[in-house]
Specification:
The chain is an alpha/beta fold. Helix content is 32%, strand content 18%. It has one domain: Thiamin diphosphate (ThDP)-binding fold, Pyr/PP domains (Rossmann fold). The longest helix has 15 residues.
């Protein structure tokens, strides 16, 4: 039997150079993604990454796996379809705060409640960076931008709370400047059996530099927090004064594609007979 050589970072890096602005938090997410895949020793041909539109959604170009750069807000439907068709694959969905919580908001809670076995990574920079600095769903109230020159009147959306309330079976938060913690959370999310949502604070240095603020606010999850307690996780998400990183909630329940495939096997599907019905 021929032993297969261990995979290295080189096996997951493409020749395409990222065109993000220097200092963008998405570099940290990309680096941690590469490291997580190496540590898990997942074969590149068995991994697929779906993304939407935005700065963060360029990520599939930089990872040597299968990938699809889809439509704005549609990373989760793409990921769901791929997981249903090929449950043997490791499927990840990447997007920004606009991609997953503006035009794609309708898809996020449904992927969570269905408990599709995918890992969804939201890179939240609190602004629309690709289209040059408009207010996003997670921008703070009063934030002045090209779309809100007098300040945003809106209350910012809480991604962690929304994921918890929608039924995600794994919810965590990371900070792109803390590479090891982010890598560890990506590994846990990928290994989790069910819908894993990872909210990543990923600053945009071009339009809204939040590194200084986050460096002061980010701290570890409270030592007495019980990630199996949904109510405690929701209470923390609502009341936290600091930006906690770590696992808010984790539970196990049946996954969507396994339930769907228990009804019939894909090999039993007769496409010709199906379409003759119409």
């Amino acid at each position: 039997m021929v032993e297969t050589a261990a995979l290295t970072l080189r096996d997951y890096r493409t020749d395409v150079k990222p065109i993000w602005c220097p200092g963008c938090g998405d570099f940290g997410v990309l680096s941690s993604t590469h490291k997580a895949l190496v540590q898990l020793q997942l074969r590149p041909e068995n991994v697929v990454i779906a993304s939407g539109i935005g700065c963060s959604s360029r990520l599939p170009y930089f990872v040597k796996t299968y990938g699809i750069h889809g439509l704005h807000g549609r990373s989760l439907p793409l990921a769901t379809g791929m997981k249903l068709a090929r449950p043997d694959l490791t499927v990840l969905a990447y997007g920004g705060d606009g991609d997953m919580f503006s035009i794609g908001t309708g898809h996020t809670p449904h992927a969570a409640r269905r408990n599709v076995d995918i890992t969804a990574v939201c890179m939240d920079n609190q602004i629309y960076g690709l289209t040059k600095a408009q207010t996003s769903p997670t921008s703070v109230r009063g934030y002045k931008s090209k779309s809100t020159p007098y300040g945003s009147p809106d209350e910012p959306l809480n991604p962690v709370l929304l994921a918890l309330a929608s039924g995600a079976s794994f919810v965590a938060r990371a900070y792109s400047a803390r590479a090891k913690e982010l890598t560890d959370l990506l590994i846990k999310g990928i290994q989790h059996k069910g819908f894993a949502f990872i909210h990543v604070k990923s600053p945009c240095v071009e339009f809204i530099n939040t590194y200084d603020m986050l460096d002061r606010l980010v701290e570890e999850m409270p030592v007495d927090h019980d990630p199996s307690d949904l109510q405690a996780a929701m209470n923390l998400a609502v009341t936290e004064e600091k930006v906690h990183v770590g696992v808010f909630y984790e539970s196990e329940r049946p996954v969507y594609e396994e339930v769907a495939h228990s009804w019939f096997k894909p090999t039993d599907f007769d496409a010709d007979a199906f379409f003759r019905r119409f």
